[in-house]
Design goal:
alpha/beta; TIM Barrel; eight-stranded parallel β-barrel; about 45% helix; globular; binds 2-phosphoglycolic acid
Length: about 250
């Protein structure tokens, strides 16, 4: 790892809609043990129903507790939604927002995601804002334009001070859960581009500091190559985050 790197690597596991509380507890306990000597920043994001269980296990360790979504309102008549106040009550540190499954399966648009980002920041959470293009958008040469739009609109109204709480996760939709990883060079090109978008919005120093994770079929076999790239500062891991044997080697890459 180059000595000049000023950003800490941040490796997060998104457990999506998997695991009962007992299964989540077993994984969390195994990860606490495995990552104890780890030198990067870590987060696990279990499903809502396992947040309390996992929170009790990772509390006081080097693993942060993440939620996979939140409602755009603080409270009220919103059947089926979970509020930032409830997440705070459970000790959640960070919220993943704008994940491609939220955008494409549940039709969340940039305006809704931005509302959630601002609400999460208002309540002191860290935010992992996911951006990324669909395969047809990439094939039409629109990858950069899509990432620019999602980044700009997702961050609309976010102050320079609040930006320090934001991590961007670049997740090309065609690489999520498909086994197709973007090559390190393809990923690096978009990461560098997103950093240039941040530079235009917030200045060079902020762009230098912001952490940009890569997500999409990250595995132990490709993690080190991806993270060797100058603008790739970590990973948001789905499938490989569901087992200690597959997540720990990614988290402890060197
Ligand atoms: P994957 O998912 O690692 O299974 O491709 C990544 C994500 O959706 O965050």
């Amino acid at each position: 790892m180059e000595v000049t790197r000023s950003r800490d690597y941040f490796i997060a596991g998104n457990w999506k809609m998997h695991k009962t509380r007992a299964e989540a507890a077993a994984l969390a306990k195994a990860l606490v043990k495995a990552l104890k000597p780890g030198k990067h920043k870590y987060l696990v994001a279990p499903t809502f129903t396992a947040l309390e269980t996992v929170g009790a296990i990772v509390k006081g360790t080097n693993i942060l507790l993440g939620a996979q979504n939140c409602a755009p309102e603080e409270q009220g008549a919103h059947t089926g939604e979970v509020s930032v106040l409830q997440l705070k009550d459970l000790g959640v540190d960070a919220i993943i927002l704008g994940h491609s499954e939220r955008r494409h399966i549940y039709k969340e648009d940039d305006t809704l995601i931005n509302k959630k980002v601002k609400l999460a920041l208002k309540h002191g959470f860290e935010v992992i804002l996911c951006v990324g293009e669909l395969l047809e958008e990439r094939e039409k040469g629109k990858a950069e334009a899509v990432c620019k739009r999602q980044t700009e609109k997702g961050l609309a109204g976010v102050t320079p001070e609040e930006l320090s709480k934001i991590t961007i996760a670049y997740e090309p939709v065609w690489a999520i859960g498909t086994g197709k990883t973007a090559t390190p060079d393809d990923a690096e090109a978009i990461h560098a581009y997103i950093r240039s978008v941040i530079a235009k919005l917030y200045g060079a120093q902020a762009a230098k500091q912001i952490v940009i994770q890569y997500g999409g079929s990250v595995k132990a076999e490709n993690a080190a190559q991806l993270m060797a790239k100058e603008d790739i500062d970590g990973a948001l891991v789905g499938g490989a985050a569901l087992k200690e044997e597959t997540f720990a080697p990614i988290a402890k890459f060197s």
